[in-house]
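Late entry, magnesium ion complex.
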Amino acid sequence: MIEVEGLTKYYGSLAAIVDVSFRVERGEIVGFLGPNGAGKSTTIKILTCYMPPSSGTARINGFDCLEDSINVRRQIGYLPENVPLYKEMTVKRFLEFVASAKQIDRSRVKGEIGRVMEICAIEDVSGRIIGNLSKGYRQRVGLAQALLGNPPVIILDEPTIGLDPTQIIEIRNLIKSLGKDHTILMSSHILPEVAQTCNRVVIINKGKVVATDSPENLTRQLQKKAQITVGFEKSINISDLKGILGGLPGIIDIMPADGDGMRWYIETDQERDLRADVAKALVEGGMRLVELKTVDMTLEEVFMHLVTEEDYSAPSEVV
Ligand code: ADP
Ligand code: MG
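Prediction complete; structure with ligand written out below:
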């Protein structure tokens, strides 16, 4: 439904995206995940025909974004990063305006507006001036305009940005329900956000796609390693620690957890629980062990591992 092949976009000499390729199949909800500046909006603007790529191709439902932009636009409902709402218009007037811009047949306009207002639960504010609405309502009006004309593909650029937690849940549920009848691509810089909404995630960093997978697999794949935290009565040096633990099967790496050498992270094979072996080896090696626990990486940390060069950031403790 969405086919992106080798998309590259330069702003002057800055390569905002480089050789970006991915596909979204019919009926999927795909998350387009990456930190700020990764190139999400750039990619989305090319897909929605707002600007041409420097090279590469994008097709929506078989139509080329560069050569067939009129047909592409008909396939897409687009919620841009900054929703272009006419703040002085009422909700209803604005939707009428968008319906006419989308050239929706006059006879269908009333029905269409009723339909999208119902889906987005904005009927009760239809007569209100957009500028006076809360951010959550405005975002729903933005979604409603994207849905007008019932396009098969919905593209949402950071649809929950700036919303409070309740509004985020509302928008997320709304997106999930839209997934029943639409193919959806939504960008976000928050992993749990897409993990909870999408069937598949495309991760982009510094303009390049770094991973594509289901949220579950992505998490699992990155969690092959587990970590044990150990704490000692007094400072230990790394060569002593490596001397004692280095021989144990399943130990991947040993890293300091603090600056004074009293707490350490031991990276281990996910498949085995090495806590007892580690404790035994340390005590037999004469170390005064005062703490030992396993640590799981949260989704956020998994994400940071993928998108940053640092191989290590302090994990949160769950046990
Ligand atoms: P994201 O949406 O993932 O935050 P963007 O696609 O907006 O990322 O930006 C990707 C990179 O391109 C960033 O380095 C950004 O500063 C740069 N960029 C975006 N738009 C422009 C523009 N109109 N002119 C110059 N540079 C831009
Ligand atoms: Mg953006």
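The chain has two domains: 2-213, 224-296. Will revisit in the morning.
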